Amino acid sequence: MPPGAVVPTVDVDRSDPAYRAWLKEAVRKVQADANRSADTHLLRFPLPEEWGVDLYLKDESTHPTGSLKHRLARSLFLYGLCNGWIRPESPVIEASSGSTAVSEAYFAELIGVPFIAVMPRTTSAEKCRLIEFHGARCHFVDDPRTVYAEAAALAVRCGGHYMDQFTYAERATDWRGNNNIAMSIYSQLRLERHPEPAWIVATAGTGGTSATIARYVRYMQYGTRVCVADPENSCFFDGWRDNDPTATSERGSRIEGIGRPRMEPSFMPAVIDRMMRVPDAASVAAVRALEQRIGRKAGGSTGTGLWSALKIVAEMAREGRAGSIVTLLCDPGERYLDKYYSDTWLSEQGLDIEPYAEAIRLFLATGRWPD
Fold it and tell me: How big is the CA angle at 87 (ends 84 and 93), to the nearest 5 degrees?
């Protein structure tokens, strides 16, 4: 379908037996994907035993589409199908910085509907390749702030459904249980020396993951605190700190998948205990340190969360508080070889990661976090 093409709306009688049979099969396929996929691993980040603090990374890169967004896409498709919004043959359109679009393209292919991803032109080439691998189309915009309006307009032109992850992420996911990410974390920590984490550190794109985790913590009456790490050029930290739902950022985030130019409807500031603003150079330094420590490359959003988690480890160790901390390995670094693992890209962006890399080295060697 060429850009800008007008596709007639597919008129569906939702009481029609053929439609109900299609819907039943589509829901079965999406649920079967979850049923046959083993839960993601919880990896230990090596720290000295005597510190009394354990750090774990929930490895979401092992999902079939390689990222944390696989959970969200599955929930959004079930939500859209059960609400009658996703119909046979009609396109699904999403505004995304990449990983959500990869996962949604997978589910669209699974149930046999077209998919179009509206993304900033700066989205990594590997993510675009993965979207197109699933038979979907990439629709680029030059200004990241226009992805919402363009996706909604494209849905009207195509007679399709605008998924709108930034509105529906927190309501499409069952935060009370149903093997959500929070429930999985607590189950996997059951036999560890600190089974109830002192902190869970998340990052925010839609805000759906942090809302799910924080709500589950409260629902289950745990003492865990939730910290959200926010990159440069994102308004979430300012909006949370100032209790300002109108906060905005004039630039798009360099850390793909997290950070937004506006306060998204799915971002729930009231359930977050703490936020940290993380320099982009620190995020990159952290993912490179992660590779050195556990031999795994990860995306920049993982680095944002890991930097904040390491700071909390340092605080707890300094104060003599034992416990565990969990953060997320959101997606594989192989998607970003031309960005976060490229010294050329760092130079072009004016990012000097060495002071942050040295801070991590010093901390892991001595237990001291630089002032």
Answer: 100
Domain 38-64+175-366 in CATH 1.10.1060.10? The answer is no
Which one-letter amino acid corresponds to residue 167?
T
Half-sphere exposure of 149 (CA within 13 A, CB side): 6
Decide: residue 240, CB within 10 A, 0-12 exposed, 13-18 middle, 19+ buried. buried
- What is the Cα 154 distance to its own chain's centre? 24
Q: Which tens digits make up the pLDDT trace of 182-218?
A: 999 999 999 999 999 999 999 999 999 999 999 999 9
Compute the distance between CA of residue 164 and CA of residue 153 in angstroms, rounded to an integer.
12
Q: Virtual CA dihedral for 219, 221, 223, 224, nearest 10 degrees?
A: -30
Where are the chain's structural domains? 38-64+175-366, 68-170
- CATH topology agreement for domains 38-64+175-366 and 68-170: yes
pLDDT attached to residue 1: 40
- Determine the Cα–Cα distance for residues 77 and 101; give it in Å rounded to an integer: 12
CATH number of 68-170: 3.40.50.1100
pTM: 0.90
